[in-house]
What we know:
By secondary structure, the protein is an alpha+beta fold. Helix content is about 40%, strand content about 20%. The strands form four sheets. The protein has a nine-stranded mixed β-sheet with strand order 1-6-5-4-7-3-2-8-9, with helices on one face. A five-stranded mixed β-sheet has the order 10-11-14-12-13, sandwiched between helices. Strand 2 and strand 3 form a beta hairpin. The longest helix is centred in the middle third of the chain and has 24 residues, at about 340-365. Bound molecules: adenosine-5'-diphosphate (ADP). The site of adenosine-5'-diphosphate (ADP) has 19 residues, from helix 2.
Amino acid sequence: MSKKTRKFKTEVQQLLDLVIHSLYSKKEIFLRELISNASDAIDRARFEALTIKSGDTGHQEWAISISPNREVRTLTISDNGIGMNAEELDRNIGTIANSGTKAFLAELKNSQETGSPQLIGQFGVGFYSAFMVADRVTVVTRRVGESNALRWESDGGGSYTVEETERAEPGTDVTLHLREDQDDYLSEWRLRSIVKEYSNYIEFPIRLLVTRTKDDKETVEEETLNSMKSIWKRPKAEITEEDYREFYHHVSHDGGTPLETIHFQAEGAVEFSALLYLPEKAPFDLLGPEPQHGIHLYVRNVFITDNCKELIPPYLRFVRGVVDSSDLPLNVSREMLQDDAIVRKIQKNLVNRVLKTLAQMKDNRRDTYVGFFREFGKVLKEGLHADFANKDALADLMLYPSTHGEEPVTLREARDRLPEERKTIYYLTADSEEAARHSPHLEIFREKEIEVLLMTDPIDEWVVQSLPEYDGCALRPIDRGELDLGQAATEEQTKRDAAAEAHRDLLTAIGESLKEQVKEVRFSLRLAASPCCLVADENALNPHMERILRAMKQEVPETKPILELNPAHPLVPRLQALFAEDPDSAQLKDYIDLLYNQALLSQGLPLRDPVKFSRMVSDLMVQAGAS
Ligand code: ADP
């Protein structure tokens, strides 16, 4: 066959133009692409050798080699894989065969139109990426089962040539004639680090020809750069704790020991291997604006990206590890990942596994789980709001501090302790556990030994809206609306109603005096020792929604709280006496003011006029001393 010149298909030319005037920030990925092609070629040769028995089976070891030549400034990637015949050469590296590349092209075009070239990062364009660093590429290839080899060459300028040549064994050499400024890729050190980073888990050895000087003599030796161990594909029985831990360090950059290792191969609708870890400590950026999602995505042993947000939902962003899919194309683009049925299936599967593992940890290693939840509970809670399908499983994973003991409890535990006649789980949201434990709202619950869950993460207030009930029991906040303790407090209720009747005028007067601050003043069922507390109106917006609406510059109706007084507190007869003496007395007004401020204080809310409050308290102390 004489030398023939052929034109690239238009699409290839477009792609080449884009690649050459590259928008790529990471040119080094060309090596990953070529190594990956070499690895695929070996996969296929190995498969043919096994199945077709082509006579070429007495093979030496399968391997990929990288040979830099500093004198002529070339870099050659060789494999002893399947090779290509003339027709395959034409079809494979003259046309765009795979849809991933097409999608990539579309994405590139888009990004150019919108003027954001940085969009292109880590996704490969296969063989053509060689032109990012080379101004001429030569491929010498011999198909398994054929005796002749072919030499393909192009400078990326619109056409390529093909001619016959010789090659001792089947396989392919891709030689890059490096561009002026790309000598970096001749450096042993650089090549070694790129292979380690991107292709460490390729299962065939990747060898670098290194020149060593020993006793003034130069020798060329082969050095294997990759570990070849895709730990996630090995049977569990062969892997030691130490292996798992080492790999955890590699993927998580965390020197600690993972709390849990989840290793499995999924088969069926989607096929993938996964090796996931649950860390012990939260990373510093867990709650930051741009937290790293720590799942590395591999496609058939080839590294694709180390921060694959699509594989795991944000509320499990602390999970680290690797997923290796055999269903995704190697040139998978960011856009494809975002909207891909396979990726969604993988995600679903991973979520199920992680939630199941957490449930087991909670049931069997409670202390460990409590530690885990302390670190990651805040993030896990986001799931209650975001992942409707797994809401029940997530609700079962929640832990809350409780008025029943020091240890946090699950909703299931709180539920199982409820008496037959009461199907309500009570909770109180507060800024801290300490503030919650001291809240006057708890008094009646303490007295009646009714459990209250204390929700003290800022996110609780918001998330609990998505959880109106748990296993047939309503979840109710104890600081909103009328408290209904049913039979547990019938006696108190009767007393309260009688007191309200007897002090109707006093209550109205207090309400009048505080009408700017509170919506209503009434007697409480909640209090045992404290004189008063503030309660949110049943229909008031929850504070989180209020904040969102305000941020959106929406009109938010001012919602005033309700002031509740303890009918059994000695302050009530004192106020009643003052009121009976002179409903307009200045002292009564001061007392009412003090009362309201105390209610604010006991709930950790800021006082409107702390100086005035403090003056009034000291005046009272002076008066008490004088009497
Ligand atoms: P992809 O590998 O994603 O299919 P590429 O552009 O990298 O896309 O390669 C196109 C095709 O060229 C490959 O699918 C393969 O058939 C062929 N090819 C590339 N490199 C080699 C190689 N080293 N040996 C054999 N075939 C190869």
